[in-house]
Amino acid sequence: MSRDLAVVHGYAASVRDTVEWQALSAHREALNGVHLRDLFDRDSNRGEQLVAETDGWLLDYSKNLLTDETVELLVALADRAELRHRIEAMFGGEPVNTTENRPAWHVALRQPNPPPEVRAEFDRMAEFAAEVRRGRWQAVVNIGIGGSDLGPAMATAALAAYADTELDVRFLSNVDGTHFREITRGLDPLRTLFIVVSKTFTTTETLSNARTARAWIADAMGDEQAGNHFAAVTANPDKAKDFGINSEAVFAMWDWVGGRYSLASAVGLSLMAAVGPEAFADMLGGMHHIDEHFRTAPWAENLPALLGLIGIWNRNFWGWPTYAVLPYSQELAPFPAYIQQLDMESSGKSVRADGTPANTATGPVAWGQPGTNGQHAFHQMLHQGTDIVPVEFIGFCCPNHELTEHHDLLMANLLAQAESLAFGAPDAGDPHRQFSGNRPSTIILGDRLTPRTLGQLVALYEHKVFTQATIWGINPFDQWGVELGKTLATAIAAELSGTAEPNPTRDSSTQSLINRYASSR
Ligand code: F6P
Question: Which helix (H) or strand (E) is 486 found in, with range?
Fold first, then answer.
């Protein structure tokens, strides 16, 4: 083992001290003052060369502030961090989630020949979803939060064109009672099925919503039958049964599937009810394609690895703290929110897997909205603000509708935004009208949004996140940062409901706010 890159629990301990990192730092200095206009002028084929492709997807990264040499140096960094070895560990089901001592084996869910328990659960889901689609239910409401909501909610919106139009599939997540009211508005309790999705079956938001849903059903038809209106997806089946859900409607997930990586598991049951088992299987096929591509393609041709390495370049060597994910697809409107959990819950760490402080910047802020709406909201800042925000544009050549003129206009806008960010405009004289350009973006272009390409897009981002975490030496599969807030909220909730005394050691701000809230109720 080399002294400057001790491998602790399989994670690179100090990538910043490696010669590969230092070479990138020096290379970045050498790019000072270089404009994207210069890079394109120097090489008329740049736009055709700095691209990678797989199965109809094109990743055009030519409008980033980098050169061929940058890519070579980033590839060397990936090798130094033992990315290939880490991928094999993850794919091999090794306990890569070191703080919880378990695998993060979501790739096993989408193998053509998955482990028998995965296959069996898929078959049960398919049967259940087919039954749901036979017409007994008017609506399916998924109750879950975080990874038990964002993935299936995003995918159900994304695949609306492939869904059963007779079945209304909705997603209830927020503990705010307004959400329950909104989501159940207009639904007939007698024809509504709730799917409670919670890996732990202890998440307070989900259980509160599930209890309210149960009371809502019981009000309409009595408590005895209410259990028949519920299914559950959980790694804690006893708790689901205690809640009164019939065991044949309880679907398994496993502790080796992380919440934000769980779309391919039974967490996708409501999605499967919406689009059917075949489309769901197509999505798994798309995921598997990218899994294999990530595992086998050389880094310089590897879409997820390149996306991750460019993320490292922008975050660590240019120092840009955020990036925007801008799908030019209304169907992908929830995609940025999905990416926020996937990326920020995975990469928002300041301690490395070996327990030492991170000595490089780690996860950036991910944010975004669908185009073209964002153009009339925050693109002003992207074009003329004092901070640089690298953009990942996502678009498709063919729409899922027949309004082709709209689609041409939509895609013209995507291309124009990337063009103007990169190249700006000639000096307009008036300083307010200046577009300096030199603002980086990547274009991820697919043929059409389908179950398969959606699966590919999801896996592309999962493995981008993995690539970055491997370089930083952090564990992308835990989320201890959300725990303290949960504990404090439980204690405060007990006080608000009068079942606990005030905590005498609490800070004066929180305590006086609690008092003010209590006195106005
Ligand atoms: O937000 C924290 C978190 O633990 C997420 O990681 C997870 O996806 C979500 O809560 C929901 O957890 P569960 O599926 O156990 O209800």
Answer: helix 483-496
* Cβ(311)–Cβ(347) below 8 Å: no
Q: Measured from the CA of 206, which atom of ligand 1 is nearest?
A: 16
Indicate if the pLDDT at residue 3 is higher than 50.
no
Q: Which residue has the tokens 């088992």?
A: 277
What pLDDT, in 10s, does the model give residues 271-287?
A: 999 999 999 999 999 99
Looking at the CA of residue 144, tell me the nearest atom of ligand 1: 16
Query: What DSSP string runs through 218-246?
Result: HHHH-HHHHGGGEEEEES-HHHHHHTT--
Are residues 219 and 184 in contact, defined by beta-carbon separation less than 8 angstroms? no
Pocket test for ligand 1, best of 479, 483, 484 (most atoms within 8 A of CB): 479
When pLDDT is averaged across residues 88-113 and rounded to a whole number, the result is 98
- Decide which of 3.20.20.100, 3.40.50.10490, 2.60.40.420, 3.40.50.300 is the CATH code for 112-275: 3.40.50.10490
**Which ligand 1 atom is at minimum distance from the Cα of 200?**
15
Domain ranges in the chain? 7-101+283-472, 112-275, 486-520
pLDDT score of 1 more than 50: no
Per the structure block, which two tokens stand in for 475? 């564990």
Question: Angle at which helices 277-296 and 116-131 pack, to 10 degrees?
Answer: 150
In this structure, of 234-243, 294-303, 433-442, 491-500, the range with the lowest mean pLDDT score is 491-500
Give the C-alpha separation, 64 to 53, whole Å: 17
Distance 382 CA to ligand 1 centre (A): 32
Distance 451 CA to ligand 1 centre (A): 25
pLDDT at residue 351 above 70?
yes
Ligand 1 pocket check: which of 142, 145, 171, 462 to mutate, most ligand atoms within 8 Å of Cβ? 145
For the stretch 195-211, pLDDT in tens is 999 999 999 999 999 99
- Give the closest residue to 15 by CA, choosing from 402, 316, 388: 316
Closest protein CA for atom 13 of ligand 1: 198
The architecture in CATH of the region 7-101+283-472 reads 3-Layer(aba) Sandwich (3.40)
